[in-house]
Amino acid sequence: MSEKDTRLINKLLEKLTLEEKIGMIHGASLFRTKGVERLGIPPLKMSDGPMGVRMEFADTEWRAIGNTDDYVTYLPSNSAIAATWNRELAGKAGEVLGEEARGRGKDIILAPGINIKRSPLCGRNFEYMSEDPYLVKELTVPMIRGIQKYDVAACVKHFAANSQETQRLWVDTLVDERTLQEIYYPAFKDAVKRANTYSLMGAYNLLNGKHCCENGKLLDEVLREQWGYDGTIVSDWGAVHNTQAAAECSLDVEMNITNDFDDYCLSKPLLEKVKSGEIDELCIDNKVRNILRMMLRLHMIGDQVEERKAGTYNTKTHQEAVLEVVRESVILLKNDNNELPLKKKGLKKIAVIGQNAVQIHSNGGGSAEVKALYEISPLMGIKKILGGNTEVVFAEGYYIPKKCEESDQNWQATSIYDKSLEIADITRENIGGNSEDRIEERRKQIQNQLREKAVALAKEVEVVILIGGLNHDYDVEGLDREHMRLPYEQDALIQAVLEANPHTIVVIYAGAPVEMPWIEQADSIVWSYYAGMEGGTALAEILWGEVNPSGKLPETFIKKEIQCPAHFIGEFGKKDVVAYKEEIMVGYRYYDTYCTDILFPFGYGLSYTEFLYDDLKVQLLEKENELSVIVEASIKNIGNLEGAEVVQLYIVDVEASVERPLHELKAFEKINLKPEEVHKIHFVLNEEAFSFYSVEDKCFKVEDGAFMIQVGGSSRNIHLEEEIIITRNYFK
C-alpha cells in the first residue's frame, strides 16, 4: 500500500462518524453492507459463488427475486477442479468466476471453499478440493489470482477446521497445534501469503473452545501477526454471537441470515458499548481501515475508480473454459477389458439408464446453487455425439422422492426435485392413508418397477451406460450424509443391469466417495464430480475417445466410512464437541501408512494410453540455512494415443523422531505427451517439503537423517525412488 493510499484511508477515517463506520462493518441487507455516499464510499456487494455467481436475492429475505438477467456460467465444483490436478485450469476457473462476478456488479465472491475433506460424509465436500493440504494450496493460489484479476475480491473460506455440517454453528472442534499447522492451516496460509486474497471468511464452528469469528488466537495471532494478513475478514452468515469478542478481535465484517440488521452484534449493540466506553473506538477504526484498503485494491475508491474492470458474463470464452476444465476432471476408475473408448461405427442402439443422466445439478446444494444459462446433461451429451445413426433409449432406473430438507442448520435449503420426472408424487393423500409403512411400500413398488424396466432394456441393447450417484439432496450445505451407500436402491439397480448386460459402463456423479459393492462385476467405471454446464459434453467425448481421460482422484476412495480415521479414531458428526484425535493422519496419510484395504488410492486415475517412468536423478544441496533438492525423471508415452499424466512426488521421512505418515505429496506436474514422446520432469524441493511442525520449537523443522524421494502415478503406484541423507537440522 502506497503512502498516498495510506493518506487517503486516514483522511476518510477522520471524516467518518462513529455511526457511519459501524454501518460499514455489518450487513445492511443479506449480501450488502452500507456505504457512505457523502464521502464516495460505496457499499460492499457480495455473492455466493463456488460454482458460479448466485442468482439475485431479495434484500431482506432468503428468496430469489426472479430476475431474467442473472443466468450465469455454471462451473465445475471445486472437487472437479481438484481432479484436474492442473494449476493453469484452476486459474482459468478463477478468471471465469471473477469476471462474471464483476459483470454482475459484485465486489466480493464468496469462494473458493478450501476446507480439508476429513470425512467422506461431510455434506459440503463437493465444494471442497481434497484431503491433502498441498494439493489444495497449489490449486487455491491460481484460483484466487484468477478471480482477483478482474477487480473482485476472492473470499477464501471457511477458516478454520470446518469439516462437518452437523450442528455447524455450535460444534466445538478440538484440534492440536501440530495438526492445525500441517493439515488445516497450509492452504489458508498460502492464500494469504502467496495469492494475497483480499478477503477471508471465518467459519461457523468453535475451534478449541472459541467461535472462529471471535477467536483472537485464530484471527489476531495466526492470521494477522504470524501471516501478516491485512485483508478483510468476513464472518460466515450468522457466525458472530458476542459483540465484545467480535469487536475486539480482527473480524472486520459481520454478516447474518436474518433481516434485523440493526440488531447484529456489530451494529447497535456495538454502538452502545463504544459510547459507554466498554469498547475502544480504535477497534472499529481498524476494521474500517481493512475494508478501505480492500476497496482501494479493487479500485472502488481512490483515483483509479474509472480504471476498474467492468467484467462480463455468459461469454463463449467462459463456456469454452468450463469445458476445458471438466474434460480434465473426469476420472477413469476401471477399464478391465478395454470396453472404453466406445466406437460409433456399427453401434445401432444403446441404453442410457439412471436419473443422473438427466438430473439438473446447478440448482441445488445451498450456497453453491446458480441459475445456469444452460446445463448439458449426460443424456444430451451422448445424443449430441452419436447423432442420428444410433438409437439412444433412456430409462429412469430409479425413483427420486420429492424432498425438501428443512432444518435450523440448512437455512437455504430448497427442493431440487426435477419436476419434469413423470413419476407420481407419493404422499399420504394419494395413497389413501397416513402410514409411513404404506408410503415406503409404495416407494419400493415404484423402485422395483423402474428397475425391471431398466433390466429389460439392458437385455435389448449392445451397450448400456448406467449413470447414477448422488445429487444435492445428499451433497448439500447444512447436512452431512449418514453413510456412503448410494441412495434410491441404486446398488440393486447397478448389480441387476450388470447381470443383464456385461457391456455396461457405470458412471457415477457425486461430490464425495460412495460404496461400490458391485465393483467386481463392473469392467468399466467412470467418475465425475459435479461437472458444470458442459459436463455432459465432456463425458460423451471421453466415453467415445474424442478426449483421453486424465483426471486423478484428489481423495482416497475407501470402501466404507468406518475405515475413515475421523470416524473410528477421531469423532465426526457429533453435535457438541468433535475431537480430531486422528491428528495428522488424514486421508491417504492414514490409509497408506496402515495399508488400509481401499477401493482406489489418492492420485489415482487411468488413461487410454500408458506411461513409462525412468531415469530418476536426485541432487542434494545443503547450505548453512538453506536446503535444496533437485529431482529429475523421464516420462514416456508408450501407448498409441496422446494423453496426459500427473507425475506425483512423495517424501518419506525414514528416521523421524515423531509420528509421520508413510509419505506425503510435495510436488506434482501434469504433462501431455504424444505417442513415443518423452518429457523430463524437473522438481526443486526446499526445507518445507521435508519438514514437520515441532510443537516444542514452535516452528517447522527438518531433522537430519534419511529421506526417500518417490515418484509415481498415485500414492500407491510409485515407479521410482531414491534415498538421500540430510546432514543437519533446519528450522523455518
Keywords:
732 residues, alpha/beta, TIM Barrel, Rossmann fold, Immunoglobulin-like, 6-stranded mixed β-sheet, 5-stranded parallel β-sheet, 19 helices, 27 strands
Annotate the secondary structure layout:
Elements: H1 3-15, H2 18-24, E1 27-29, E2 32-33, E3 46-48, H3 78-84, H4 87-103, E4 108-110, H5 133-148, E5 153-159, E6 172-174, H6 177-184, H7 186-193, E7 199-202, E8 206-207, E9 210-211, H8 216-226, E10 232-235, H9 243-248, H10 268-275, H11 281-297, H12 316-327, E11 331-335, E12 349-353, H13 378-386, E13 391-395, H14 436-458, E14 463-469, H15 490-500, E15 504-509, E16 524-528, H16 535-543, H17 565-568, E17 577-579, H18 588-593, E18 611-622, E19 627-637, E20 643-653, E21 664-673, E22 678-685, H19 687-690, E23 692-694, E24 699-702, E25 705-714, E26 717-726, E27 730-731
Parallel strand pairs: 3-4, 4-5, 5-7, 6-8, 6-17, 7-10, 12-13, 12-14, 14-15, 15-16
Antiparallel strand pairs: 1-2, 8-9, 11-16, 18-19, 19-22, 20-21, 20-25, 23-24, 24-27, 25-26
Low-pLDDT ranges: 404-431
Would you count the extended β strands for me?
27
- Protein structure class: alpha/beta
Tell me the radius of gyration: 26 Å
Q: Proportion of β residues?
A: 15-25%
Instruction: Work out the helix count.
Output: 19
Strand order of the largest sheet: 11-16-15-14-12-13
Query: CATH fold name of the largest domain, please?
Result: TIM Barrel
What does the largest sheet look like? 6 strands, mixed
Kindly report the oligomeric state of this protein.
Answer: single chain
Tell me the name of the CATH class of the largest domain.
Alpha Beta
Q: What is the count of distinct domains?
A: 3
- How does the overall form come out from the CA principal axes? globular
- CA distance, first residue to last residue: 27 Å
> In CATH, what is the homologous superfamily of the largest domain?
Glycoside hydrolase, family 3, N-terminal domain
The helicity comes to: 25-40%
Mean pLDDT score, rounded?
Answer: 94
In the CATH hierarchy, what is the architecture of the largest domain at level 2? Answer: Alpha-Beta Barrel
